[in-house]
Design goal:
Layout lengths: L11 E9 L11 H17 L3 E10 L10 H13 L4 E4 L5 H11 L2 E4 H12 L3 H15 L3 H4 L15 H39 L5 E6 L5 H9 L16 E6 L5 E6 L9 H6 L1 H8 L3 E7 L5 H15 L6 E6 L6 H6 L7 E2 L8 H11 L5 E9 L3 H10 L1 E8 L2 E9 H7 L8
Parallel strand pairs: 1-2, 1-3, 3-4, 5-7, 5-8, 8-9, 9-10
Antiparallel strand pairs: 6-7, 11-13, 12-13
Length: 431
Amino acid sequence: MKTTRTTDVRERALLVGLGLKRAPHLPGHSSGETARESLEELAELARSAGAIVTGSILQMREAIDPASVVGHGKLDEIRAEAEARQAPLIIFDRELTPVQQRNLERGVERRVIDRTQLILDIFARHARSREGQLQVELAQLNYLLPRLAGAEPELSRLGGGIGTRGPGEQKLETDRRRIRQRVQRIGAAIETLRRQRALRRNARQSVPLGTVALVGYTNAGKSTLFNALSHAEVLVSSKMFATLDPTVRAVRLPSNRRALLSDTVGFIRDLPKGLLAAFRATLEEVQQAALILHVTDISNPHHAEHDAEVEKVLVQLGVSDRPRLHVFNKIDRLDPETRRAMSASNGNVYVSALDGTGLDQLLRRVDETMAVDPVRRLRFSVPLADGRKLALVHGLARVLHSELRDSRMVIDAEVPESLIRRLRLAPSEEA
């Protein structure tokens, strides 16, 4: 099964959300307010997938119906609403079991997909690299495998009676076997790419360059910030999950050190579990980073909830204790009074990647926080005849003061440890 991008034909879709009247604190269960926010986010996801959102329905229940999620009475309402809005597709704002999805499709007499399928479709659209496409396909196949029998339940009973034997059953088992074999092949291919990425990373680490990973909720402006800091041309889009394939670029810090900046896939609430596993190779850039920049869209009224979701993923990745700077982006969208009230005294950084506000301060903070190849302030002298060493000092260190004494240049500079070793400064030359 190959990952294919969907056509540009825009499909009309009706969205369905569910909130619980009680126990909203339980994992995966939404209160009314949270359910409405999640439904709004689902609409953005649907539009990013190319759908035309014709409307939405939010149901509040005491408990989830195990068979159909919403109950048989609500199914009639959903079917009637879909007919009135001419929507052949129903998108549920939660992950459905194979049985629930089958029952829903029978009840509403339309195609039904869940939040996970929608996200996988967006990922399939945006994956450009071979590695990204393989990772998406792996997640799709792992999602599809347990749902094969659900499409035709009578085929899943081996020798269960008249009409259940024969080529139908054999085809189902053949499909399962082919998918499992494809999953194994993709897993092996991804592992090969992961080793190649590790070799490239090790090659980079042979030179003392720390990696700074940008993480954050999807559409927080990470790619715009990445471009502003590295002068790259990574795709910037208001669509969710526009960035899937990791990009690494070198940036020059105020101390004249260089660091590697890595742009990564955005996170989202209820991120499908299979995606984190499938994108393990990509997310290793975050796991190997010396410093994490957590980028938040401060103009989004739900940014606190988004930050909490990002924190959950960082915990799952095992990097919650990694050195981190919290970068509040898009301050250009705030009113002047709110911007004046913000203070960096809490350790956070406030920027606008769009107009460049605060980027110099951000680079200074990265420079101060980066533990790789720390900077020391030194006074040393270099013979004027040693042009190579002078060029290295001016190119890789931050020269604060220099003066000519006889045939030597006496220099006060902030020098990375790696350059100190490379220049082989004698102790007597240090201030």
